[in-house]
Predict the structure.
Amino acid sequence: MMNQNNKYLSTTELANLSGISRIAVFKKIKKGEIKAKKKGRNYLINKADITGLNNNLSANSKKMIDNAVNKTVREYGETLRLLSQE
């Protein structure tokens, strides 16, 4: 569902923007972590209500992600560089 109103996002749009699944968006709505308005069979999420949604990573999670990225670059850096040239 594509919204004509720039003030709101659909669950699909929010999922794409935040890098989580639609199911995860629905679960967060149900838990009250994301404020949403029911519109027919769909939900609309006000853009003003989602600031900081991706800032929920703990310091430990961020460190694990950094380590994984560094390891990937170390082990596959040359391959990644060659692929980026294609």
